[in-house]
Specification:
The chain folds into 2 domains: 8-12 and 34-56 and 280-400, Lyase, Ornithine Decarboxylase, Chain A, domain 1 (Beta Barrel); 58-278, TIM Barrel. It is 28% helix and 23% strand. The protein has helices at residues 32-43, 57-70, 86-95, 104-111, 129-138, 148-157, 186-198, 217-229, 247-261, 276-279, 405-410, and strands spanning 8-11, 22-25, 52-56, 74-79, 98-101, 120-122, 142-145, 162-166, 202-207, 236-238, 269-272, 283-296, 302-308, 329-331, 340-346, 361-364, 371-374, 395-400. Strands 1, 2, 3, 12, 13, 14, 15, 16, 17 and 18 form a 10-stranded mixed beta sheet that branches. The protein binds pyridoxal-5'-phosphate.
């Protein structure tokens, strides 16, 4: 059941601004989940039941507070790729985070908010020359690299850059192992640091994926020593992203490793590039069942196929990379505990691979027109969605129970 909160809609868009027009300020005691239920009720009188998301901007502010409290020495440079919604970037700019950008468009997006170039790291180790030139023109100096070719491009297009060497870390435990694509081995670092010096480039720090192995902070110290030996002034340690759900445990490992290998009196600045930690829990999606089939599986057992209006080519592309399938919350009242069936959830496109997971999930018998809710879909969802087969991206509305206006007006 949903409660009508009488959400006050208020426009914060200034002329010519690309930001969405509306921020929904919820009434006292309201929550984003209740707003989702309210919208479902609103749409349920109509045949138009397009998928939508509610983003809880207060949750975003609270994730920032949690991050800062657990890792007081680490300044977050939010990974824009994770969710580049203008409201999200606007709130983070107001909270004072830095930004990790991977392309010219992401740089443009963040700079257009008035964020100082010194608050940005261009953290893609393999950049197009034109994007490097753009960074140079706009004064974005912090750039990552992991190869000699990249150094040659930077020497030509951005000689004033402050470079961060991305090293390989053991990431077999990581959910998205990146080892084969990016990162210099410890053996290659010595040569790269000398090559940078010979090209007249300044290397200022080291970056590695803390999500893979926090212990690798000790490897970074070795690379710092190599860098100093090659004549660089090493002053920045970048822990990148991959902060997991069990964050507190990881934070204490990181804090202990920092205290041992980079004590505060070294003056080394420590940054990170968290994405999913900030965004995952911010968004809740509501999707509608647009088709249904019942089939008999092995042993004559009933299985259900539900066709949803959101899928792999929309906001749920990331689901297929996850270790376990997501079971949605069913928005339907049953008189008694319903029987559950193994169900396959398909997306709306004509592609046979457009399904939410390879495994089945257990759900009750539902009908066309029923709603499902997926919580914690703020990370790598909207930013990875496409319009394949003519399905537009899910509408997102931004909700806050706190009045963010004054914070946003002060930003950045
Ligand atoms: C360079 C870099 N920084 C930060 C991130 C963000 O990682 P996460 O969203 O897991 O925190 C990624 C993820 O791909 C990355 O490649």
């Amino acid at each position: 059941t949903s409660t009508h909160l009488g959400g006050l809609k208020e426009s914060l868009r200034s002329p010519g601004s690309p930001w969405p027009a509306e921020l929904i300020v919820l009434g006292p005691g309201g929550s984003a989940r209740q707003e989702v239920l309210r919208k479902i009720q609103e749409l349920s009188d109509s045949v138009h039941r397009d998928p939508f998301m509610v983003a809880d901007l207060d949750m975003l502010a609270s994730r920032h507070a949690t991050f800062r409290q657990a890792l007081p020495r680490v300044w977050p440079f939010y990974a824009v790729k994770c969710n580049s919604s203008p409201w999200v970037l606007r709130v983070l700019a107001a909270l004072g985070t830095g930004f990790d950008c991977a392309s010219q468009v992401e740089l443009e997006q963040v700079l257009s908010l008035g964020v100082a170039p010194s608050r940005i790291i261009f953290a893609n180790p393999c950049k197009a020359s034109a994007h490097i030139q753009y960074a140079a023109r706009r004064g974005v100096k912090l750039l990552t690299f992991d190869s000699e070719e990249e150094l040659t491009k930077v020497a030509k297009h951005h000689p004033e850059a402050r470079l961060v060497l991305r090293i390989l870390a053991e990431d077999s435990k990581s959910r998205f192992p990146l080892n084969t694509k990016f990162g210099a081995s410890l053996e290659a670092c010595g040569h790269l640091l000398t090559r940078a010096r010979d090209l007249g480039l300044a290397v200022v720090g080291v970056s590695f994926h803390v999500g893979s192995d926090a212990q690798a902070i000790a490897d970074c110290r070795r690379v710092f020593e190599m860098g100093c030996g090659a004549g660089h002034h090493m002053s920045l340690l970048d822990l990148r992203g991959g902060f997991p759900g069990v964050f507190e445990e990881m934070a204490s490992v990181i804090n202990a490793a920092l205290a041992q290998d980079f004590p505060e009196d070294t003056g080394v600045e420590v940054i990170a590039e968290p994405g999913r930690f900030y965004m995952a829990s911010v968004c809740t999606a509501a999707v509608n069942i647009i088709g249904k089939k019942a089939v008999l599986g092995p042993g004559g057992h009933r299985r259900l196929l539900y066709y949803l209006n959101e899928g792999q080519y929309g906001s749920f592309r990331i689901f297929l990379r996850e270790p376990t399938p997501r079971t949605p919350i069913v928005v339907k009242e049953f008189l008694s505990e319903p029987h559950l069936f193994p169900c396959t959830l398909y997306g709306p496109t004509c592609d046979a691979f457009d399904r939410l997971s390879l495994e089945e999930v257990w759900l009750p018998e539902l009908d066309v027109g029923d709603w499902l809710i997926f919580p914690s879909v703020g990370a790598y969802t909207c930013s990875m969605s496409s319009t394949f087969n003519g399905f537009p991206p899910a509408y997102v509305c931004y909700a806050t129970v706190r009045q963010l206006r004054s914070l946003l007006e002060m930003a950045p």
